[in-house]
Amino acid sequence: xxxxxxxxxxxxxxxxxxxxxxxxxxxxxxxxxxxxxxxxxxxxxxxxxxxxxxxxxxxxxxxxxxxxxxxxxxxxxxxxxxxxxxxxxxxxxxxxxxxxxxxxxxxxxxxxxxxxxxxxxxxxxxxxxxxxxxxxxxxxxxxxxxxxxxxxxxxxxxxxxxxxxxxxxxxxxxxxxxxxxxxxxxxxxxxxxxxxxxxxxxxxxxxxxxxxxxxxxxxxxxxxxxxxxxxxxxxxxxxxxxxxxxxxxxxxxxxxxxxxxxxxxxxxxxxxxxxxxxxxxxxxxxxxxxxxxxxxxxxxxxxxxxxxxxxxxxxxxxxxxxxxxxxxxxxxxxxxxxxxxxxxxxxxxxxxxxxxxxxxxxxxxxxxxxxxxxxxxxxxxxxxxxxxxxxxxxxxxxxxxxxxxxxxxxxxxxxxxxxxxxxxxxxxxxxxxxxxxxxxxxxxxxxxxxxxxxxxxxxxxxxxxxxxxxxxxxxxxxxxxxxxxxxxxxxxxxxxx
Amino acid sequence: xxxxxxxxxxxxxxxxxxxxxxxxxxxxxxxxxxxxxxxxxxxxxxxxxxxxxxxxxxxxxxxxxxxxxxxxxxxxxxxxxxxxxxxxxxxxxxxxxxxxxxxxxxxxxxxxxxxxxxxxxxxxxxxxxxxxxxxxxxxxxxxxxxxxxxxxxxxxxxxxxxxxxxxxxxxxxxxxxxxxxxxxxxxxxxxxxxxxxxxxxxxxxxxxxxxxxxxxxxxxxxxxxxxxxxxxxxxxxxxxxxxxxxxxxxxxxxxxxxxxxxxxxxxxxxxxxxxxxxxxxxxxxxxxxxxxxxxxxxxxxxxxxxxxxxxxxxxxxxxxxxxxxxxxxxxxxxxxxxxxxxxxxxxxxxxxxxxxxxxxxxxxxxxxxxxxxxxxxxxxxxxxxxxxxxxxxxxxxxxxxxxxxxxxxxxxxxxxxxxxxxxxxxxxxxxxxxxxxxxxxxxxxxxxxxxxxxxxxxxxxxxxxxxxxxxxxxxxxxxxxxxxxxxxxxxxxxxxx
Lengths: 497, 497
Description:
497 residues, mainly alpha, homodimer, 3-stranded mixed β-sheet, 2 domains, Neurolysin, domain 3
């Protein structure tokens, strides 16, 4: 058993450190690649991916991995996690013939272009046929992977291991029942403020401000970087090399700040995972949902709280002494609720309804309950039902997200799982660090980072997500904490009583 | 033959595009890697290098490469170059057992640290033993590679294919005979100016200036980038992705400018090579010497000419309107000759003597004519003889260069080959573009780039360096043009008549 483990670890080590090159290529492609270099980059990407894919399939050479899986109960906690994760990845990979992977990759590239064109022309019909092909490839994937209970389970599992439709249905129903009526209450309230920041904030100063704020949150710049990309992201390139990105608006300094704080949450998680886990395949977050819980917690639970905004305001004044909003103004601005069409621009109250809509549609597509051609109608009807808005054109509706064109079906729910987990974890953490509700100092933020490290970060992928959340909060995924958080905060802010 | 060629090309393609990842890793390591990420990067580097090394050795699987070499005379010019270069790389690689490569790589890493320590402490004795080990590994390499006439030929050939000690001896003697007495004349002349630029030049403005100057020279930013690194370099990552770096001094704007122009010369070459050559292993410069000829030409022959400085001065004024030197002052400043100890800070008149010294020492080390322990004495005596200076301490003498600690014996001569070639090519080009001696406009620089493209860049590695120089200039390597250029320019500048 020990010698098999040793061989497995050596193979995992090579796989992970080679795929570190792939991570750097990805980072560079989104941050610094010259315009004309994009197409030759695709060749290098696919060659490195192929090398990694072969190494993944070779994990079981001599059947060591499949045999180790039989020994799982005899292994230490850490070794069991290593074997479990290695097998999960290997098992998913071996189920896809290379012809399928190639077809999917070609379809994604094509679909991505068609999607962009359709979105630019605000015309879903351009995209309909290729999306139908994509949906049918997703169904093929479901058949290749196999599933229990519900075909969509096969797809979710890739992003959120262990998550199922029945658990998600429960969770989303819990959210919907509370949120739909609550949003009506909030948005029907006459309020006197809007989200408006319209100043002059030179980027070079904003960069310093963002770096300062990230540092006080606990993001470590000697093991990371902050760069600019169209869509902000966080990437674990290697141990001590976890990079984040943001983007700036000269007029609105909050635009970059809240993206940076969000990615900072991911980054602090990535930097906190023990480096020795990296080379054995458990140096990631426990799941996408858990990862998102960390970013959302920093961005929303902490970041949009009055306590934190008092501190943030001081940092803003340091670089922009003429900034003319008080902390109280700022608090209102960053917590303004509005009925919008676009998921990525939505506030923390309405956000999950955007996800519920996508989740319901994805499930129905995979089951064949709705026809791709009818998607705009389905989409717009749900937007009307949940948010009460009339989508004016497809680019502001069904065409807004990139995910489906890339074949990422099953990904959307992890955003809401992240929101649910974030409130659940924060609720527990507040009992240990009540200062988070009072005057937040840099020490408070240090305590928060330590708490997250001790309870979540240091375990990397040792525990499955649901085990971890139960260990930390004493119960499984429960939307009640999120609902309660939203209800308390916005009842007070919008003076709903 | 055709099917063998097809297989070879496919193998070369994979090799080159995978090693493109290695190039990006290298770039990132020198430009953006976070401080703590360095040690895990080394692991990824060595794994990707290993993959590439295996792919290189596999080029001959089924003996297709060794058989194609027999068919060389029947192949087209391009295919013959592809086979020739593939075989050269393969043949060098197969001669080194993997144990040797590993030992050399470990020794380099260690020697690099020891060298740094010795340099910091200005004490060669710390470095002596490990350098002796390195020299003896270089002798081993010579034995593994085999050679004709002179053992040092085996080492030069890696950097400058086809170059030999007898050709270099001729060339360096030609230089030495002219330069040693000429430098005495120049430096004994009383002059009224010095190299002094001491102003305030904010980096953000300097970046724009450098980008502007590089653009007018012909470097294409949609297929490249300009970043900052401690030691400026150029790297061909992939087709349409040729990046350069520079470094800035807030006080001296020339510090960055001339580095940028030098690297720009490399970059324009890299960007000019037909992209279809990249994947078949002939998408590099013809040799390091030819590559250096392009950078030196832009930096010195063009860049330090009165004609170009008139244009450069306008660009400087655009960003720094208070710049208080006239073009004539600037010309004197950038052509100031001084007797210094440090190669990288030396001017174009004294530079080659720094190389001659290293060349002579390397040859003697490889032949066992001198003892590593005595290197400081040998070095300092030669400095006295050639430049008439007394080296005050080892950090300013024998310890100044990184090359030996990395095992790069045989590299130094390519710098002088570059200088010689640059003057020889420029002399030919001037006949076609006499405007280079008159008023230089952006059109003149376009003509220069086109001329270099037509005569040099578009051939990539099709022609061996010496064939190429003969095609372009009508004769082989000839130091006379360099001597003549230096004599004319500095006789006038220093009023030696």
